[in-house]
Amino acid sequence: MIDPPIRVGVIGCGAQGQNHLKVIKELGIETAVVSACCDLSPERLQNAKEVWPQARTTDDFTDMLASSELDLVIVATMPNTHVKMALAALEAGADVLCEKPFMRNLEEAETVLDTAERLGRQVQLGTNMRYMPTSRYLHNLVASGEVGVPVFCKLWGCHVNPPWWGPHYYLSSSAGGVLASTLIHALDLAIWVGGSPNPVSVSASMRCLFPGKRGPLASPEVKERFNVEDLFTALVRFDNGSTYVLEGNWCDDRPPPHSFEMVTTQGKLNSDPFIVTVDEDGEVVNKTPELQENSGWGESIQNQDTDVIQRLRDGAPWSMQDRRQLLNLQKLIDGCYESARTEREIVF
Question: pTM higher than 0.70, yes or no?
Answer without folding.
Answer: yes
